[in-house]
Amino acid sequence: MSTLEDEVTHSNDSWVHRKMERMKEKMHAHPVMKHLYKPLVIGVGALCLIAGLIMLVTPGPGWLFIFIGLSIWATEFVWAHKLYNRMMKIVLTCWHKIQDWNNQRKAKREARKASKN
Prior knowledge:
The chain contains five helices and no strands. The chain is mainly alpha-helical. Helix 3 runs antiparallel to helix 4 (about 60-75) and helix 4 packs antiparallel against helix 5 (about 80-115).
């Protein structure tokens, strides 16, 4: 089983991040897009983040959109990258605790079934 640090590092090296970096390089090569890239990142990231916040109180995948907005901002801003990594560690820690809890429940259920037989 990989460690939490490995999972966060792997998520930063994913194909999505590589594709975003290639797109960023192409946009910076174009004279007009070079100046539109940062405002575009700010706008799209803010749109996703605001939509996520709205979806927290309405039906929808609010946390997913918050993470998407942060990951978009993380391509340009160091503070957003640090916040994204910190939130990713918290989410992964919770996910692993839930998986461990489910495995313990499953083992207890199987032990009860075995003792009845």
